[in-house]
Amino acid sequence: MSRKAIRKQHVSLRFKRREQLKHQLRVFGVRGVALALIVGFGGGLVAGRDSYASLFIQHHAPLVDLNMPQVLAGLPIQAGLPKNTFWLWCPGSGLWLQRQICQRYPSVRAVRLERHFDMNRLMVHVEPRIPLVTWNGFGFDKEGVLFPVVPRAWNALPQAALPASVNKHDLSLWLVRLASVTDLWPQVTSVREDLSETMALTLKTGTVVIWGTLETEPTLYKAQALLRVLDDAHQNLGGASRADLRFFEQGRIIVLPKGK
């Protein structure tokens, strides 16, 4: 191929590259203008209280019903719900709502969001923490959590007099096991721990039960044996003022009759 033909080919290739570059610039320019128009139009829809999107959201915002037990009365949970309820339709909003309410109100254990799309309505179910005992004006539950309680809401519960250093995890396990003994637990009026880390119960009859150290495994068997001994003391000794279970593993429960 001659030099003249090669030169013409190079000129033709440069011209084609310039035309391709111009075409790409025109395409990018058109797309940029279109994107700007879309963003501007969308911003106009969303921005402002009278915009189409805002009016749509306001019109379709669901009604929210709060299902909350009486023991949580007085907590301003309704006022703490988001003003814009429309986004509560979104997946994951229930977990967010539970985290917000539980962090703000420790006496709330869980929150469940029930959606009724056909009625455009949301039901917020609030689950309270259930205390096993009251402790210095606070509730103490099965998860070992101390939390504020509504005054006079849990007056029938045993009163705990415990040091701050007590192992709350072990204490919660022990109380859960003890509370499952339905013939014994309703009789308990107080729970305390002395300096030797010995747990003691006071019953409605006035009987003081020296339980021993915290444990979970023999609790049920130990409580059932205590009930049999107390019943026997009631029938044959006129009742018991004290029952000592610290030697239970040796097969002994020491009972002090009333009046002695």
Keywords summarizing the entry:
alpha/beta; single chain; Ubiquitin-like (UB roll); 3 domains; nine-stranded mixed beta sheet; Rossmann fold
Describe it for me?
This protein has 260 residues and is of the alpha/beta class. It starts with a helix and ends with a strand. The strands form two sheets. It has a nine-stranded mixed sheet, with helices on one face. The protein contains six helices and twelve strands. It is 38% helix and 24% strand. Mean pLDDT is 80; it is low at 4-8. It is elongated. It folds into three domains: 3-55; 61-128, Ubiquitin-like (UB roll); 131-257, Rossmann fold (3-Layer(aba) Sandwich).
Mean pLDDT, nearest integer?
A: 80
- The global form is elongated
Give me the CATH fold name of the largest domain. Rossmann fold
Widest β-sheet, arrangement of strands: 6-5-4-7-8-9-10-11-12
The profile of the biggest β sheet is: 9 strands, mixed
CATH class of the largest domain: Alpha Beta
Helix content: 25-40%
Structural class: alpha/beta
Question: What is the end-to-end distance?
Answer: 130 Å
Number of domains: 3
Low-confidence stretches: 4-8
- The tally of strands reads 12
**Which CATH architecture of the largest domain is right?**
3-Layer(aba) Sandwich
> Considering the protein shown, what is the CATH homologous superfamily of the largest domain?
Cell division protein FtsQ/DivIB
